[in-house]
Amino acid sequence: MQQICGVNKKKNKYIKWKIWLFDILGTAVSRKVRVRLAELGAFPIYDKAQIIQVRRGDSLKIPCKPPTGVPDPETYWTDNTNTGDQFGFLVSNPRIQQDYYGLFYINLKILVFSMYFVLLGNLYFLNVKDEDEQKQFICNVFSRKLNVIRRGALTQIQVIKSDPNNRRPMKLWTSEANRVFLKGYKLSLKCIFGGLPTPGVIWRKINGTIPERRSTVTMEKQELVITDLQFEDAGLYECRGHNGR
Q1: Distance in angstroms (rounded) separating the CA atoms of residues 221 and 62
Q2: CA-to-CA distance for 199 and 242, rounded, in angstroms?
């Protein structure tokens, strides 16, 4: 025979389940399984677009504080001059980048390993151009579990028409310094550099070499990706921004 029991924790919106199996020889009890209700919060409501003034050629960071959700929602930016369009167009420009961070969990009790990336939601302009003020930028979150999209406030850029000076590369954001990965997994490292002209990124492994056959450098995303990780891939990696200045 078997018995299923659920304990409702309303404050935390989850239920813990256990299964008891028993017969004349004894009883076996399963581990606790926590079941949470999928949910997605909402952005604050603003009456009008946020306006940011920035000089032509300067770097810019537009923060986004995405609402919480279970599971963690995906964050992405759209740009669109048509504010009535719910989805808009994904921001896709080597001069405009978005950050992220990686999470790595190890549960020693049940030996479960999981690793994933969560987009933080901050948008970076490596250098601002006049064309950027022709669009509106919107931070969005998407819950795959609920198939629901939440839309943030509109952000409008006003470019101050000053003569831009060339600028040396400046670090705007990098992946966290210490990372742990499992053998066979994929490694993603990213650096975002501002500057004028738009900087490129050079990657190298200190006291070692980056495996050519298993690695790619996506210049548009300023990102290094190594697939099928091996033990010899451990070490220190360095990114450098360059634009000839």
Answers
A1: 17
A2: 5
Q: Which residue has the tokens 């504010």?
A: 83
Q: Is 112 helix (H, G, I), strand (E, B) or coil?
A: strand
Q: Angle 62-143-81 (CA atoms, 0-180°, nearest 5)?
A: 45
Name the amino acid, one letter, at 130: D
Torsion 215-173-201-124 (CA) sign: positive
Nearest Cα residue to 59 out of 175, 157, 190: 157
Does the global pTM surpass 0.85?
no
pLDDT at 115 over 60: no
Give per-residue pLDDT as tens, 195-237: 999 999 999 999 999 999 999 998 666 899 999 999 999 999 9
- Among candidate residues 242, 207, 200, the one with its CA nearest the CA of residue 221: 200
State residue 132 phi and psi, 5-degree precision.
-70, -25
Q: Would strands 148-160 and 50-55 be described as parallel, antiparallel, or unpaired?
A: parallel
CA 228, CA 230: separation in Å to the nearest integer? 7
All domains of the chain in start order, with CATH: 2-37 (no CATH), 38-165 (2.60.40.10), 166-245 (2.60.40.10)
Q: Which residues pair with 101 in a beta bridge?
A: 118
List, for residues 140-185, the tens digit of each pLDDT value: 999 988 999 999 989 999 999 999 999 999 999 998 888 888 899 9
Alpha-carbon distance 134 to 155, whole Å? 11
Residue 7 pLDDT: 43
Q: Residues 192, 126: contact at Cβ < 8 Å?
A: yes
Specify the pLDDT at position 126.
Answer: 96
Q: Is the C-alpha dihedral spanning 117, 120, 126, 127 positive or negative?
A: positive
